Amino acid sequence: MTRRQHFVIILILGTLSTISPFSIDMYLPGFPAIAKDLHTSISQVQLSLTAYLVGISVGQLLYGPLLDRFGRKLPLYAGLAVYLLASIGCALSTSIDMLIMMRLFQALGGCVGLVAAQALVRDLFPVNQIAQVFSLLTLVIAVSPMIAPTVGGYATIALGWHSIFLILAVITALILVGVYFVLPDGKAPDTALSLQPKAVLGSFFTVLKQPQFLIYALVGGLATSAPFAFLAGSSDVFMNIYHVNEQEYGWIFAILSVAVIAPTQLNRFFLKRFTSEQIIFATLRYQAVVGALLVFGTWAGWYGQYGLMVMLFLFLCGQGITGPNASALSLAPFVRHAGSAAALMGSFRMGFGACVSAAVSVLHNNTALPMVGVMLTVVVSGLLVLLIGQRAVQHRSRQEDVNAPVAEVML
After folding, report:
1. 127 Cβ neighbours under 8 A, 6+ residues apart
2. 379-395 pLDDT tens trace
3. What is the C-alpha to C-alpha distance for residues 339 and 184, in angstroms, rounded to an integer?
4. Do residues 112 and 79 touch, judged by C-beta distance below 8 A?
5. Tens of pLDDT along 331-375?
6. 3-class secondary structure for 306-362?
7. What pLDDT sits at residue 407?
8. d(Cα 55, Cα 30) in Å, to the nearest integer?
9. Distance between alpha carbon 215 and the CA centroid of its chain, in Å?
10. 294: domain CATH number?
Protein backbone atom coordinates (compact mmCIF):
# COMPACT_ATOMS: atom_id res chain seq x y z
CA MET A 1 0.00 0.00 0.00
CA THR A 2 1.47 3.35 -1.09
CA ARG A 3 1.46 6.39 1.19
CA ARG A 4 -1.17 8.04 -1.02
CA GLN A 5 -3.44 4.99 -0.83
CA HIS A 6 -2.85 4.83 2.92
CA PHE A 7 -3.88 8.50 3.27
CA VAL A 8 -6.99 8.17 1.08
CA ILE A 9 -8.20 5.04 2.87
CA ILE A 10 -7.79 6.61 6.31
CA LEU A 11 -9.55 9.76 5.09
CA ILE A 12 -12.58 7.80 3.85
CA LEU A 13 -12.69 5.65 6.98
CA GLY A 14 -12.47 8.84 9.01
CA THR A 15 -15.38 10.44 7.14
CA LEU A 16 -17.44 7.30 7.66
CA SER A 17 -16.71 7.57 11.35
CA THR A 18 -17.70 11.26 11.39
CA ILE A 19 -21.28 10.67 10.23
CA SER A 20 -22.50 10.13 13.76
CA PRO A 21 -20.35 12.87 15.39
CA PHE A 22 -21.61 15.34 12.78
CA SER A 23 -25.18 14.16 13.39
CA ILE A 24 -24.74 14.82 17.10
CA ASP A 25 -22.64 17.99 17.13
CA MET A 26 -24.15 19.90 14.25
CA TYR A 27 -27.62 20.35 15.69
CA LEU A 28 -26.57 21.24 19.26
CA PRO A 29 -26.64 25.02 18.61
CA GLY A 30 -30.19 24.58 17.33
CA PHE A 31 -31.58 23.18 20.60
CA PRO A 32 -33.23 26.47 21.71
CA ALA A 33 -34.63 27.09 18.21
CA ILE A 34 -35.96 23.53 17.97
CA ALA A 35 -37.57 23.79 21.41
CA LYS A 36 -39.24 27.09 20.48
CA ASP A 37 -40.41 25.93 17.04
CA LEU A 38 -41.79 22.59 18.27
CA HIS A 39 -43.30 24.15 21.43
CA THR A 40 -41.35 22.04 23.88
CA SER A 41 -38.50 22.30 26.41
CA ILE A 42 -34.75 21.92 25.92
CA SER A 43 -34.79 18.86 28.20
CA GLN A 44 -37.24 17.24 25.74
CA VAL A 45 -35.00 18.17 22.80
CA GLN A 46 -32.12 16.52 24.69
CA LEU A 47 -34.10 13.27 24.46
CA SER A 48 -33.67 13.38 20.68
CA LEU A 49 -29.94 13.09 21.38
CA THR A 50 -30.61 10.17 23.72
CA ALA A 51 -32.74 8.51 21.00
CA TYR A 52 -29.88 8.90 18.54
CA LEU A 53 -27.41 7.28 20.94
CA VAL A 54 -29.84 4.42 21.63
CA GLY A 55 -30.17 3.88 17.88
CA ILE A 56 -26.40 3.76 17.45
CA SER A 57 -26.04 1.30 20.31
CA VAL A 58 -28.69 -1.10 18.98
CA GLY A 59 -27.81 -0.63 15.31
CA GLN A 60 -24.16 -1.54 15.75
CA LEU A 61 -25.18 -4.92 17.14
CA LEU A 62 -27.21 -5.54 13.99
CA TYR A 63 -24.49 -4.47 11.57
CA GLY A 64 -21.68 -6.48 13.17
CA PRO A 65 -22.94 -9.88 11.97
CA LEU A 66 -24.08 -8.40 8.63
CA LEU A 67 -20.60 -7.01 7.94
CA ASP A 68 -19.05 -10.40 8.70
CA ARG A 69 -21.59 -12.33 6.62
CA PHE A 70 -22.01 -10.11 3.54
CA GLY A 71 -18.68 -8.27 3.52
CA ARG A 72 -18.19 -4.64 4.38
CA LYS A 73 -19.72 -2.71 1.50
CA LEU A 74 -23.24 -4.08 1.00
CA PRO A 75 -24.38 -3.29 4.58
CA LEU A 76 -22.65 0.09 4.21
CA TYR A 77 -24.78 0.99 1.20
CA ALA A 78 -27.99 -0.09 2.93
CA GLY A 79 -27.27 1.75 6.16
CA LEU A 80 -26.26 4.99 4.48
CA ALA A 81 -29.44 4.92 2.37
CA VAL A 82 -31.55 4.62 5.54
CA TYR A 83 -29.63 7.53 7.03
CA LEU A 84 -30.33 9.74 4.00
CA LEU A 85 -34.08 9.11 4.15
CA ALA A 86 -34.22 9.62 7.93
CA SER A 87 -32.29 12.90 7.65
CA ILE A 88 -34.95 14.23 5.30
CA GLY A 89 -37.56 13.03 7.80
CA CYS A 90 -35.81 15.00 10.56
CA ALA A 91 -35.88 18.13 8.43
CA LEU A 92 -39.63 17.70 7.88
CA SER A 93 -40.47 17.02 11.55
CA THR A 94 -43.38 19.03 12.93
CA SER A 95 -43.34 17.72 16.52
CA ILE A 96 -40.76 16.67 19.08
CA ASP A 97 -42.08 13.09 19.00
CA MET A 98 -41.57 12.92 15.23
CA LEU A 99 -38.07 14.36 15.55
CA ILE A 100 -37.16 11.83 18.23
CA MET A 101 -38.42 8.97 16.05
CA MET A 102 -36.60 10.21 12.94
CA ARG A 103 -33.41 10.63 14.96
CA LEU A 104 -33.71 7.01 16.05
CA PHE A 105 -33.97 5.84 12.41
CA GLN A 106 -31.18 8.20 11.42
CA ALA A 107 -28.92 6.56 14.00
CA LEU A 108 -29.92 3.04 12.95
CA GLY A 109 -28.70 3.85 9.44
CA GLY A 110 -25.70 6.03 10.15
CA CYS A 111 -24.07 3.82 12.75
CA VAL A 112 -22.98 1.41 10.02
CA GLY A 113 -20.16 3.86 9.30
CA LEU A 114 -18.73 3.45 12.80
CA VAL A 115 -18.76 -0.36 12.74
CA ALA A 116 -17.55 -0.73 9.16
CA ALA A 117 -14.70 1.74 9.63
CA GLN A 118 -13.38 -0.10 12.69
CA ALA A 119 -13.73 -3.52 11.05
CA LEU A 120 -11.96 -2.26 7.91
CA VAL A 121 -9.05 -1.00 10.02
CA ARG A 122 -8.67 -4.55 11.30
CA ASP A 123 -8.96 -5.88 7.70
CA LEU A 124 -6.56 -3.52 5.96
CA PHE A 125 -3.78 -2.87 8.48
CA PRO A 126 -1.44 -5.15 10.50
CA VAL A 127 -2.09 -5.55 14.23
CA ASN A 128 1.00 -3.56 15.25
CA GLN A 129 -0.32 -0.51 13.34
CA ILE A 130 -3.92 -0.56 14.57
CA ALA A 131 -3.47 1.81 17.51
CA GLN A 132 -1.66 4.34 15.31
CA VAL A 133 -4.35 4.09 12.61
CA PHE A 134 -7.06 4.62 15.22
CA SER A 135 -5.16 7.70 16.39
CA LEU A 136 -5.23 9.07 12.83
CA LEU A 137 -8.93 8.24 12.55
CA THR A 138 -9.54 10.04 15.82
CA LEU A 139 -7.77 13.07 14.34
CA VAL A 140 -10.19 13.09 11.40
CA ILE A 141 -13.14 12.53 13.73
CA ALA A 142 -11.93 15.26 16.08
CA VAL A 143 -12.14 17.84 13.30
CA SER A 144 -15.93 17.41 13.24
CA PRO A 145 -16.54 19.13 16.59
CA MET A 146 -14.56 22.10 15.28
CA ILE A 147 -16.66 22.35 12.14
CA ALA A 148 -20.08 20.88 12.90
CA PRO A 149 -21.38 23.16 15.70
CA THR A 150 -20.07 26.27 13.94
CA VAL A 151 -21.76 25.28 10.68
CA GLY A 152 -24.87 24.31 12.63
CA GLY A 153 -24.95 27.67 14.40
CA TYR A 154 -24.68 29.69 11.20
CA ALA A 155 -27.16 27.42 9.38
CA THR A 156 -29.69 27.76 12.21
CA ILE A 157 -29.50 31.55 12.11
CA ALA A 158 -29.48 31.86 8.30
CA LEU A 159 -31.75 29.03 7.17
CA GLY A 160 -33.42 27.59 10.26
CA TRP A 161 -32.70 24.38 12.16
CA HIS A 162 -34.35 22.21 9.48
CA SER A 163 -31.48 22.99 7.10
CA ILE A 164 -29.02 21.20 9.39
CA PHE A 165 -30.46 17.80 8.52
CA LEU A 166 -30.52 18.55 4.79
CA ILE A 167 -26.82 19.44 4.98
CA LEU A 168 -26.16 16.13 6.76
CA ALA A 169 -27.97 14.29 3.96
CA VAL A 170 -25.80 15.95 1.30
CA ILE A 171 -22.58 15.18 3.21
CA THR A 172 -23.54 11.52 3.53
CA ALA A 173 -24.35 11.28 -0.18
CA LEU A 174 -20.81 12.48 -0.96
CA ILE A 175 -19.33 9.93 1.48
CA LEU A 176 -21.36 7.19 -0.22
CA VAL A 177 -19.78 8.10 -3.57
CA GLY A 178 -16.30 7.84 -2.04
CA VAL A 179 -17.09 4.45 -0.50
CA TYR A 180 -18.32 3.10 -3.83
CA PHE A 181 -15.47 4.30 -6.03
CA VAL A 182 -12.40 4.40 -3.77
CA LEU A 183 -12.66 2.32 -0.60
CA PRO A 184 -11.26 -1.27 -0.80
CA ASP A 185 -13.69 -4.11 -0.16
CA GLY A 186 -11.88 -5.41 2.90
CA LYS A 187 -12.65 -8.88 4.24
CA ALA A 188 -14.60 -11.06 1.80
CA PRO A 189 -18.12 -12.26 2.72
CA ASP A 190 -18.07 -15.31 4.98
CA THR A 191 -20.93 -17.49 3.79
CA ALA A 192 -20.20 -19.99 6.57
CA LEU A 193 -21.48 -17.49 9.14
CA SER A 194 -25.16 -17.89 9.86
CA LEU A 195 -27.49 -14.99 10.58
CA GLN A 196 -29.79 -17.16 12.67
CA PRO A 197 -30.27 -15.60 16.12
CA LYS A 198 -28.55 -18.52 17.82
CA ALA A 199 -25.48 -18.25 15.58
CA VAL A 200 -25.34 -14.44 15.88
CA LEU A 201 -25.56 -14.63 19.66
CA GLY A 202 -22.90 -17.32 19.56
CA SER A 203 -20.53 -14.97 17.71
CA PHE A 204 -21.14 -12.24 20.26
CA PHE A 205 -20.63 -14.72 23.09
CA THR A 206 -17.33 -15.83 21.53
CA VAL A 207 -16.19 -12.22 21.57
CA LEU A 208 -17.40 -11.60 25.12
CA LYS A 209 -15.52 -14.66 26.40
CA GLN A 210 -12.25 -12.96 25.50
CA PRO A 211 -11.15 -11.24 28.75
CA GLN A 212 -9.05 -8.63 26.97
CA PHE A 213 -12.03 -7.54 24.89
CA LEU A 214 -14.44 -7.44 27.81
CA ILE A 215 -12.16 -5.36 30.04
CA TYR A 216 -11.13 -2.77 27.48
CA ALA A 217 -14.51 -2.52 25.78
CA LEU A 218 -16.11 -1.73 29.15
CA VAL A 219 -13.31 0.67 30.12
CA GLY A 220 -13.47 2.37 26.74
CA GLY A 221 -17.27 2.51 26.85
CA LEU A 222 -17.32 4.15 30.27
CA ALA A 223 -14.39 6.52 29.80
CA THR A 224 -15.38 7.69 26.32
CA SER A 225 -18.97 8.35 27.39
CA ALA A 226 -17.86 11.43 29.37
CA PRO A 227 -18.08 13.71 26.30
CA PHE A 228 -21.71 12.66 25.85
CA ALA A 229 -22.49 14.34 29.15
CA PHE A 230 -20.83 17.45 27.73
CA LEU A 231 -22.82 17.08 24.49
CA ALA A 232 -26.10 16.76 26.36
CA GLY A 233 -25.54 19.61 28.80
CA SER A 234 -23.21 22.14 27.18
CA SER A 235 -25.75 23.95 25.00
CA ASP A 236 -27.98 24.54 28.04
CA VAL A 237 -25.03 25.56 30.25
CA PHE A 238 -23.45 28.02 27.84
CA MET A 239 -26.56 29.33 26.05
CA ASN A 240 -28.99 29.55 28.97
CA ILE A 241 -26.69 30.13 31.96
CA TYR A 242 -23.95 32.20 30.30
CA HIS A 243 -26.24 33.56 27.53
CA VAL A 244 -24.00 32.99 24.50
CA ASN A 245 -25.71 32.84 21.08
CA GLU A 246 -25.67 30.00 18.54
CA GLN A 247 -22.56 31.23 16.74
CA GLU A 248 -20.62 31.85 19.96
CA TYR A 249 -21.55 28.40 21.23
CA GLY A 250 -20.26 26.89 18.00
CA TRP A 251 -16.89 28.58 18.52
CA ILE A 252 -16.75 27.46 22.17
CA PHE A 253 -17.40 23.90 21.04
CA ALA A 254 -14.71 24.23 18.37
CA ILE A 255 -12.15 25.49 20.90
CA LEU A 256 -12.88 22.64 23.30
CA SER A 257 -12.59 20.09 20.49
CA VAL A 258 -8.87 20.97 20.25
CA ALA A 259 -8.60 19.14 23.58
CA VAL A 260 -9.29 15.93 21.68
CA ILE A 261 -7.20 16.64 18.57
CA ALA A 262 -3.83 17.50 20.14
CA PRO A 263 -3.60 14.50 22.51
CA THR A 264 -4.51 12.20 19.62
CA GLN A 265 -1.19 13.02 18.02
CA LEU A 266 0.61 12.84 21.37
CA ASN A 267 -0.72 9.29 21.62
CA ARG A 268 1.35 8.29 18.58
CA PHE A 269 4.41 9.63 20.41
CA PHE A 270 3.50 7.82 23.64
CA LEU A 271 3.04 4.51 21.82
CA LYS A 272 6.71 4.52 20.88
CA ARG A 273 7.65 4.49 24.58
CA PHE A 274 4.74 2.91 26.48
CA THR A 275 2.19 0.17 26.00
CA SER A 276 -1.48 0.96 25.38
CA GLU A 277 -2.30 -0.54 28.80
CA GLN A 278 0.07 1.85 30.57
CA ILE A 279 -1.24 4.85 28.63
CA ILE A 280 -4.90 4.14 29.45
CA PHE A 281 -4.20 3.67 33.15
CA ALA A 282 -2.25 6.94 33.41
CA THR A 283 -4.84 8.88 31.40
CA LEU A 284 -7.79 7.72 33.51
CA ARG A 285 -6.00 8.71 36.73
CA TYR A 286 -5.29 12.15 35.24
CA GLN A 287 -8.95 12.61 34.23
CA ALA A 288 -10.18 11.49 37.65
CA VAL A 289 -8.08 14.19 39.37
CA VAL A 290 -9.10 16.94 36.93
CA GLY A 291 -12.73 15.79 37.07
CA ALA A 292 -12.78 16.01 40.86
CA LEU A 293 -11.47 19.59 40.68
CA LEU A 294 -14.04 20.37 38.01
CA VAL A 295 -16.96 19.11 40.10
CA PHE A 296 -15.83 20.65 43.38
CA GLY A 297 -15.00 23.98 41.76
CA THR A 298 -18.37 24.10 39.99
CA TRP A 299 -20.17 23.34 43.25
CA ALA A 300 -18.13 25.99 45.10
CA GLY A 301 -18.71 28.60 42.40
CA TRP A 302 -15.04 28.99 41.50
CA TYR A 303 -15.54 29.07 37.74
CA GLY A 304 -17.23 31.55 35.48
CA GLN A 305 -17.72 30.88 31.77
CA TYR A 306 -14.02 30.99 30.92
CA GLY A 307 -12.88 29.11 34.01
CA LEU A 308 -15.33 26.33 33.20
CA MET A 309 -14.03 26.22 29.61
CA VAL A 310 -10.44 25.84 30.84
CA MET A 311 -11.32 22.98 33.19
CA LEU A 312 -13.41 21.23 30.53
CA PHE A 313 -10.50 21.59 28.10
CA LEU A 314 -8.09 19.97 30.57
CA PHE A 315 -10.54 17.13 31.26
CA LEU A 316 -11.31 16.41 27.60
CA CYS A 317 -7.61 16.13 26.76
CA GLY A 318 -7.78 12.55 28.01
CA GLN A 319 -10.43 11.50 25.49
CA GLY A 320 -8.09 11.61 22.49
CA ILE A 321 -5.76 9.18 24.25
CA THR A 322 -8.08 6.67 25.94
CA GLY A 323 -10.32 6.02 22.94
CA PRO A 324 -7.76 4.81 20.33
CA ASN A 325 -5.87 2.62 22.81
CA ALA A 326 -9.03 1.02 24.19
CA SER A 327 -10.22 0.32 20.63
CA ALA A 328 -6.91 -1.26 19.62
CA LEU A 329 -6.77 -3.49 22.71
CA SER A 330 -10.41 -4.53 22.29
CA LEU A 331 -10.08 -5.59 18.62
CA ALA A 332 -6.54 -7.02 18.64
CA PRO A 333 -7.52 -10.63 19.54
CA PHE A 334 -9.93 -11.03 16.58
CA VAL A 335 -9.76 -11.73 12.85
CA ARG A 336 -12.85 -13.72 11.86
CA HIS A 337 -15.16 -12.01 14.33
CA ALA A 338 -13.73 -8.49 13.92
CA GLY A 339 -17.10 -7.16 12.73
CA SER A 340 -18.97 -8.55 15.73
CA ALA A 341 -16.23 -7.31 18.08
CA ALA A 342 -16.36 -3.81 16.57
CA ALA A 343 -20.16 -3.84 16.86
CA LEU A 344 -20.10 -4.83 20.52
CA MET A 345 -17.40 -2.30 21.33
CA GLY A 346 -19.31 0.48 19.61
CA SER A 347 -22.56 -0.63 21.20
CA PHE A 348 -21.02 -0.45 24.66
CA ARG A 349 -19.78 3.07 23.99
CA MET A 350 -23.02 4.40 22.57
CA GLY A 351 -25.11 2.53 25.14
CA PHE A 352 -23.17 4.20 27.93
CA GLY A 353 -23.43 7.47 26.02
CA ALA A 354 -27.22 7.16 25.82
CA CYS A 355 -27.44 6.50 29.57
CA VAL A 356 -25.14 9.43 30.28
CA SER A 357 -27.08 11.90 28.12
CA ALA A 358 -30.36 10.72 29.65
CA ALA A 359 -28.88 11.16 33.15
CA VAL A 360 -27.89 14.76 32.37
CA SER A 361 -31.42 15.43 31.10
CA VAL A 362 -33.07 13.86 34.17
CA LEU A 363 -30.74 15.64 36.62
CA HIS A 364 -31.18 19.00 34.88
CA ASN A 365 -31.29 21.76 37.51
CA ASN A 366 -30.21 24.92 35.64
CA THR A 367 -26.58 24.54 36.75
CA ALA A 368 -23.49 22.85 35.28
CA LEU A 369 -23.31 20.28 38.09
CA PRO A 370 -25.28 17.49 36.37
CA MET A 371 -23.00 17.71 33.33
CA VAL A 372 -19.66 17.76 35.16
CA GLY A 373 -20.82 15.32 37.87
CA VAL A 374 -21.73 12.66 35.31
CA MET A 375 -18.43 13.25 33.46
CA LEU A 376 -16.47 12.50 36.64
CA THR A 377 -18.62 9.48 37.51
CA VAL A 378 -18.03 7.62 34.26
CA VAL A 379 -14.26 8.20 34.28
CA VAL A 380 -13.92 6.95 37.86
CA SER A 381 -16.10 3.96 36.97
CA GLY A 382 -13.84 3.16 34.01
CA LEU A 383 -10.76 3.35 36.22
CA LEU A 384 -12.33 0.96 38.74
CA VAL A 385 -13.27 -1.52 36.00
CA LEU A 386 -9.70 -1.41 34.70
CA LEU A 387 -8.20 -2.05 38.14
CA ILE A 388 -10.61 -4.88 38.99
CA GLY A 389 -10.39 -6.44 35.53
CA GLN A 390 -6.61 -6.47 35.43
CA ARG A 391 -6.40 -8.03 38.89
CA ALA A 392 -8.95 -10.69 37.94
CA VAL A 393 -7.00 -11.63 34.80
CA GLN A 394 -3.70 -11.72 36.72
CA HIS A 395 -5.27 -13.92 39.41
CA ARG A 396 -6.68 -16.25 36.77
CA SER A 397 -3.27 -16.50 35.08
CA ARG A 398 -1.57 -17.35 38.40
CA GLN A 399 -4.16 -20.04 39.11
CA GLU A 400 -3.60 -21.58 35.67
CA ASP A 401 0.17 -21.59 36.28
CA VAL A 402 -0.28 -23.32 39.65
CA ASN A 403 -2.70 -25.92 38.32
CA ALA A 404 -0.73 -26.75 35.18
CA PRO A 405 1.87 -29.07 36.87
CA VAL A 406 -0.90 -30.84 38.79
CA ALA A 407 -2.74 -31.57 35.58
CA GLU A 408 0.44 -32.94 34.03
CA VAL A 409 1.00 -35.29 37.02
CA MET A 410 -2.57 -36.53 36.85
CA LEU A 411 -2.13 -37.31 33.18
Report:
1. 332
2. 898 888 888 877 765 55
3. 16
4. yes
5. 777 666 666 777 777 777 777 877 887 888 778 787 888 888 888
6. HHHHHHHHHHHCCHHHHHHHHHHHHHCCCCCCHHHHHHHHHHHHHHHHHHHHHHHHH
7. 40
8. 21
9. 17
10. 1.20.1250.20
DSSP-derived secondary structure letter, 240: I
Residue 409 within any structural domain of the chain: no
User: Which of 113-127, 133-147, 324-338 holds the top average pLDDT?
Assistant: 113-127
In a domain, 411, yes or no: no
Asked if pLDDT for residue 139 goes beyond 70, the answer is no
Which residues have CB under 8 Å from 215's CB, separation 6+?
385, 386, 389, 390, 393
Position 97 confidence tier, pLDDT thresholds 50, 70, 90: very high
CA angle, residues 194, 197, 198, in degrees to nearest 5: 80
Q: Tell me the CA distances in angstroms from 359 to 71, 155, 191, 318, 369, one per residue in order.
A: 37, 29, 42, 22, 12
Closest to 320 in 3D by CA, of 229, 235, 226, 384: 226
The verdict on residue 406 lying in a domain is no
In a domain, 40, yes or no: yes
